[in-house]
UniProtKB/TrEMBL annotation, chains A, B:
It comes from Aspergillus glaucus CBS 516.65. InterPro entries: Amidase_CS, Amidase_dom, AS_sf. The keyword Hydrolase applies. This is amidase. Its EC number is 3.5.1.4. GO terms for molecular function: amidase activity. It catalyses: a monocarboxylic acid amide + H2O = a monocarboxylate + NH4(+).
Length: 566, 566
């Protein structure tokens, strides 16, 4: 392809068609898909209509169940993989959630796993036979990585004639393979990755499968949409400002933003690589809290710290898990053993009615069990997201602008590129100090809650919105402060799906006092009709490097919620 | 003091005298101290001449022994503290190693500890009654922190009328107190901290107590000299390019450079604060490997990660310690269980004869026990220290220059201030990526040694010089590459004292081939006569966050060395 004669639109179109063409003919949808106005929700019955009962059985199991079946030989890896490939193919045709489709390679790997199991009677590893999807930042041998940039098509991260193109494999992928997982597709991301929605010039817009008028979130938006449609049982995204948690919340699934250094980022493509005021992190997404734990623990079992210089030598800590589990069990009798805090708003923008109700549901569930839930009101709350905004733009948007310029493609309005000031070393150092002071202030505040709980112990976790809104109306994501402050703090945060917006229940309540101009705008954009059906998830935030504790508590709380909502 | 009428020389002189004045009259040396030409070595007999037999007994015990005695009530905390205060006072008068003297406060704390022990029969914590010295970066209530800057006298980190002056206390100090330690003095540092020698306009030059023609190293030079003179059993320094390891090696003591995040830096003064391409780290120094472990473990017992946002939630790992201990024991029968690599030079500058012999002694000791010692020859070895040099100068020396300009004081020639280019965000990001690639290359090389050892396991540690020379001749520290590459890698490194330069034994050998111009210069500067008596220490380098393993192995190797040299 001679770039002189081909427009970026043609390259994008060719790539878009190549993704579709990679879907086997038998799985292409030939009938007309009803428009969103007729059928907003394509999950459940609608997508099931394309599948056999056996495929539905397999694809609607969570990663824990699937792995149990494939690791015991009840289900073959090939059968599980084919079922997910089929469902992922349908999912993509419904909401545009895939960037790369490599089903044949996946099925080949599944065959080898089955052969291994047949020969040894043992699973290959803790994820034996589990299909896993990946955000399109991870390199997989034989497959391209575009990250949504037209200029990256046919290159290695934008570099032409680089021998690593289609040859490199990210460390995470190597570890997934060693654990017995089967990677089978890569999912869509927004141009630049810096957006709470997912749109790029190759695949267009990735829609929310629960309500196709709305966004699937971003930047791990393709993961969120695919997993919500059960086109994948679980996958990995990345998060520098909310990019795992937002799509998890918007799609009604679970997601974990671990602290930096726990999951391997080595050898993955990234935006603004080398910016280290706030590090992007890798984390799992799935349909149950148990799935997140399974994936997280499986990766740690591969000792990523021996292969990724930024990974911490911190294996899965059974003692922390067991301690938390014991606390949870003992707290059935003595609820003061576990206490929580609730952050009702971040002092900049208040949550919409569906999010307020999700918070309340979670609060009530915990209170019904006897747990104390104190108010979470740290000082200068907004400083966190101000620091984050600066950290994302230190180079004046140069890196992002350059990637876009490779092809000359158009920008996507949702992408956050703050051009202009290019920071100098000393200014960055001052920002790093400001960040540390903010972290220290927050940490001291957390410690001080031992005085507020009355138990002598600080709170165990914070309950907090993921965004002011449920899965957002396109173009209306105006405030990422609910997630980005967590990145500044480098705290552990798990997203738990709680409810869906309901046009009947979540009417606009009494007039509220606005916290800011942006609050007024965001409140004015609540539209009960439009948001109907949009999922709402809530963050369960722990301290830095408390993944074992937060995953264990997320599992507990999600079960309690399920029981409460029965 | 009105700054308009007082010159920086007068401020410096007043501060210098104030330090001396803080030493009780009874401990001031009135007789003439023989010049270095007559008596280069003031350790041992000479300093003992100022002390009672009981004081000698106490001060020549290591931190482990002292703590045993003070924690069991055999020695009172007051007696131990007074002995060290006396000896530190003498030490300072011999080599200029103190910045702050607060013996009265220390003795008051010791009295309280004795009262606590008297009342409860229990020690306050794991360091009950142990006097501990601190590099003059840590804030202690009631005491100034100048970090050697004349412009910081009477301020808080150079800020006038700041209420934190003499009020703030660093997190490390808080934790030491809770562990039962007694802080009693702060030790000298070079102006800017960026130097391998210790000199500033307040106290002048800190000399090496084993040979007062030579440097005590830097930047934790005062710690090194004081501990070598047994004026303190143990203390804490910091290390961004070798600043713990160099003074440990130059003074014949032990020192640990942990990986970033293990020891709390929170609330300490620093140079170029907020530069986060290479983080400075805090680590212990002492007269035995066991002392380092005692201090390190005691600080971790205080859970620094709940109070320092940069500290990792990683307690002392008993399992790693026990595993290493078991390996060491089992390796007496099967030496292949532990293998080592030796880095003979860093491809830029070769070590002087005393350092070569120290390396050889260590190698021979391990080989005599049957351990394999392979050659350590990673590619592009010099890239590490090139990255470090850049990281130290990202702001074009602005921060350091500004601190010096506060008083208008003169620069110290040994300080490394590379003025000029002020880096931009995107250039820094590129440097961070280059650093990560270097770390990855090094890590892969380490992993690949499983093929070279023949044991199927990669090497357990690397033996490596600390500097090309023994305790250096003033003004001749030309290459910090042997330590700074470890900071880039963020590896754990313990310094073990091995030998002393000897003018008879360490003659210049056969002519050698120079690796570089700087090598030729460094080799030409070897002077057997001048270096006579200068200590030589060797690094034992482990991977990132392998402190438990390296401390356990350092203890083992130092005992083996002792036995071998008997």
């Amino acid at each position: 392809m001679a770039s002189v004669t081909v427009s970026w639109q043609e390259v994008a179109e060719a790539k878009r068609l190549a993704i579709l063409d990679a879907i086997p003919e038998k799985w292409r949808i030939r009938e007309c898909i009803p428009p969103a106005t007729e059928l907003p929700d394509v999950t459940g019955n609608y997508i099931q209509g394309f599948l056999s009962p056996r495929e539905i059985e397999i694809t609607e199991a969570d990663a824990v169940t699937i792995t149990k079946q494939t690791s015991s030989g009840n289900w073959s890896a090939v059968e599980a993989t084919e079922a997910f490939c089929h469902r992922a193919a349908i999912a993509h045709q419904l909401v545009n959630c895939l960037h790369e489709v490599f089903f044949e390679d996946a099925i080949q790997v599944a065959k080898e796993l089955d052969a291994y199991f047949g020969a040894t009677g043992k699973p290959m590893g803790p994820l034996h036979g589990l299909p896993v999807s990946l955000k399109d930042q991870f390199h997989v041998k034989g497959v391209e990585t575009t990250m949504g940039y037209v200029g990256w098509v046919g290159t290695f991260e934008g570099k032409r004639d680089d021998p690593r193109a289609k040859m490199a494999e990210s460390e995470l992928v190597r570890e997934l393979r060693r654990a017995g997982a089967i990677v089978f597709c890569k999912t869509s991301v927004p141009l630049t990755l810096m957006a709470g929605e997912t749109a790029n010039n190759i695949i267009g817009y990735t829609w929310n499968p629960k309500n196709r008028h709305l966004s699937c979130g971003g930047s791990s938006g393709g993961e969120g949409a695919l997993i919500a449609l059960r086109g994948s049982p679980a996958g990995f995204g990345t998060d520098i400002g909310g990019s795992i948690r937002v799509p998890a919340a918007f799609n009604g699934i679970f997601g974990l933003r671990p602290s930096a250094g726990r999951m391997p980022y080595e050898g993955a493509a990234n935006s603004i690589d080398g910016q280290n005021t706030i590090l992007s992190v890798v984390g799992p997404m799935g349909t149950s809290a148990g799935s997140l734990k399974l994936l997280f623990k499986a990766i740690l079992s591969q000792e990523p710290w021996l292969h990724d210089p930024l990974a911490l030598a911190m294996p899965w800590r059974d003692d922390v898990e067991m301690q938390t589990q014991s606390l949870i069990e003992a707290s059935a009798k003595d609820p003061s053993l576990l206490t929580f805090a609730i952050m009702r708003h971040d002092s900049v923008v208040q949550p919409h009615p569906p999010v307020r109700q999700a918070l309340m549901l979670m609060e009530q569930t915990l209170k019904n069990r006897g747990h104390q839930v104190i108010e979470w009101c740290p000082q200068n709350c907004q400083v966190g997201h101000e620091i984050a905004d600066k950290a994302y733009s230190l180079d004046g948007g140069e890196d992002l602008t350059d990637q876009i310029a490779l092809s000359g493609e158009g920008k996507i309005p949702q992408c956050f590129i703050q051009t202009g000031k290019h920071w100098k070393a000393r200014e960055i150092a001052a920002l790093n100090v400001q960040k540390r002071l903010y972290q220290k202030m927050y940490m001291d505040y957390w410690n001080s809650t031992d005085q507020l709980t009355g138990t002598g112990r600080p709170v165990d976790a914070i309950i907090c919105p993921v965004a002011p809104h449920a899965a957002v109306i396109p173009g209306r994501y105006r405030h990422v402060g609910y997630t980005s402050f967590v990145n500044v703090l480098d705290y552990t945060s798990a997203v738990i799906p709680v409810t869906n917006a309901d046009k009947v229940v979540h009417r606009i309540g009494n007039p509220i006092e606005y916290l800011s101009d942006i609050d007024e705008q965001v409140q004015s954009e609540y539209d009960a009709e439009m948001y109907h059906g949009a999922p709402v998830g809530i963050q369960l935030i722990g301290r830095r490097l408390e993944e074992e504790k937060i995953l264990t508590m997320a599992d507990f709380i999600s079960r309690e919620l399920e029981n409460a909502l029965k």
